[in-house]
## 1
Amino acid sequence: MNTEQITPDILTRALEGVNYLPDENLVITLFLALQMKKPILVEGPPGTGKTELAKATSRALGREFFRVQCYEGITFEQIVGEWNYQKQLLQLEISRQKSGEEDIFQEGFFIKRPLLQAFINQQPAVILIDEIDKADEEVESFLLQALGEKEITVNDLGTFQLANDLLVVLTSNSQRTLLDETRDRCLYLYLDYPDPERELEIVKALVPEAPLPLLKEVVSLIQRIRRMDILKKPSIRATVDWVRSLLTLGEEEPSPEVLTETLGVVVKSQEDRKKVKEHLFKLEGHLYDDF
């Protein structure tokens, strides 16, 4: 799909076609990023669909997908590329035997990593720089050239210009404060946990075989759990997994006992499990207060 052909309505339908249900704010931000050729910085709690946004956009637009998964200690070489020292040494040895000289600082001796691969890709692409807040400021500073000037410089090799219509999506869980320069180069999008009605729509699209009463009950319970003072709030993925788990067990009308037994699908620590079990299931009956 060519960028010139995209409208907000077309973008909405394309995302819905790959089971990603966007709200209006998301669609407008994504549309502007595509038209203005600007990166998007996506923040919000874990499990709200930040990573999936980039993947779904790639599928919806039929673009090749690249990913850099950031972590503490990640380096320039792991993001952009590194010299193949063994190949360089072998070529030098061959050159000595032939009494000649060989330039070993050429592209053929360089191993390209995801960011550089995405830049020189000949077709429009999407690259996800996931959890940029886990990388240190030195790496983030390096990315400023790519984000702002649309080019990447590799010592001893040269500068690579962006060769395609590339959508860059950065995600952050706010583990550290990002540089102002990074924010200045990006459009900003915040994804929060959805309200009950919207979460019901999302889960219904992903688990269409589930009966509506089961979906309502699970979503209502998830919403209540998120309002509790717990260490890790359940993601949208956890909601989907809980519904699928109950269907797998043949529990379309689960009892409080079954819901308690399957809490491990959505609650990921013993401390949280005790809190949820004590406060959420002390009342009898099924709960639909959120609808």
## 2
Amino acid sequence: MSSRDTVRAPIEKAGDQITSNRMSQRVASIDWMRGFVMVLMIVDHASMAFDAHHLDHDSAMYADAGTMALPGAEFFTRWITHLCAPTFVFLMGTSLALSVERRVVKGVNAWEIDKSMLTRGAIIALLDLTIISLGSGYWNFGVLFAIGVSMICMVPLRRLPTWAMLLLAIGWMFLGEILTGWFWVPPGNSSVPAALTVANYASSMLVIKYPVIPWLAISVLGWVFGRHLIRFAASQSKVSGRNVLWACGAVSLILFAVARGMRGYGDMFLHRADDSWQQWLHVSKYPPSLTYYALELGILFLCLAVLRTLELRIGVRQNGMFYVFGQTAMFFYIVHRLAFEVPATYFGLRDVYGLGATYGVSAVMLVLLYPACRWYRTVKAAHPQSILKYL
């Protein structure tokens, strides 16, 4: 990606090409990926609510994190869902870049764009502190909080040149462990301010597991990728987004293998205890380690590349399950979280079942959510200027 491009320069030349079918196809691939991880996420949230053996000590804040037993089926069920949060945050950045910079082409006032981002970001962040927290029975600064605040932070950051955004994102991923160590010495909690920014905190009434800066780095990286898609659509780059994804995915997984194999810096204090496959994959999510970034983003990049390849061959079904779920992600998230958390919290169903029930409940919820999400998509499309445009 060229270091010379700014926000406006490549966009003004792209013009109608940006809104062409070619760019629309890329958005379809993004929705597929988002929908795919929604399906994975529902399994994790069902396990969080009902599975008595749910594993969630993915952080050095827990004293037993490095030595705890990691039963294969339970661990794999937890591990596959690690892909969800980085996917949401990365694709938020990519989708915002495509949407915002198209609006720039149309001549939309900069303040109008900023106001829309600020409003949407605030609403998304507040959903965690209101609806989700009420359903869970404690103050929850979760993934919606990280996404919303990251969106707000992108208002000034979007004005940076691409090289500067890339430097900030990659720089944090490689050096963030050093800075985090200044404010947090595991095991145990950090301070609340440190948890909001770089570390984590958990008590019976307050949980902060998604610090802003580490997740903002992923959204910035997503924005950089969105800019590259625009440049390629405008014939200003000869490297397709798909080829970027193949290359970055391979490099990321190699980086993961090297860093995890060293059992040192890059693990965010959660080092590999032995050579079992569980220990290799038992990386720190709270906060994200370099090994977590490399593994999850590597998988994400390769999945996106595969989906783009499939899309070029088979096209897009408007009512395909992943496509529908990807287009209604926020509705999907709120409905299923409340459907799981309310009975678990207020009706005594927390941690009373096993892994079989987790998958059974997840399957039933997916069947119910598909027609509901199709309905919501229709309602949202029919009211483009309502508050639904922010969700």
## 3
Amino acid sequence: MGRVYLVGAGPGDPELLTLKAYRLLKEAPVVLYDRLVDERVLALARGERVYVGKGEGESRKQDEIHRLLLAYARRYPLVVRLKGGDPMVFGRGGEEVCFLLRHGIPVEVVPGVTSALAPGLPLTHRGLAQGFAVVSGVLEGGGYPDLAPFAQVPTLVVLMGVGRRVWIARELLRLGRDPEEPTLFVERASTPREKRVLATLGQVAEDRVEVASPAVWAIGKVVGALAPWILKRAWAEV
């Protein structure tokens, strides 16, 4: 049996890879990769590349990915499962670990820089935020998340929420957040196509913000604390 490594590819910039991730990409005879893995990171892989992404309109199921991982682990001594960001932050890494362990396959997780951190914001800026939460804008099967437990968290980072940004903003306002609270969208963070859009939560709720997926969405006073720096880097402002 081979060993499977669940490797975090980070948000895009290959220089944000860990040294271990870089080494494994060079050594692995096969790499199974997701839709959001940057092409520059993927280019580092020397072995066979197998696409197992699940983008919009694609029908590949998680159990099919499990079967592929098992088949390759029985065939090769080293298998890399490459995931955008961190494999254990909304990457279904836990499901893959459990499946492989049930089948006697040794697994190791190689952490990556989660896209939630890619904008470089001080999520716990002293005096403004003593904690933060990272939430998904979409639940399994396309369901809508319950935001009530996170509504008053000082800094809220939303992943996979671009398509539902208006609903999310309105729900957060209904739950008591300030419509003047600053928010920041960062499209394709850490890549040459990065774009930053600064707006208030109220402007998002009014559907006045144009932003494309994939993007990280940060909400909270910490965004306003670095507004001059953010504006200097921003490509668009509402």
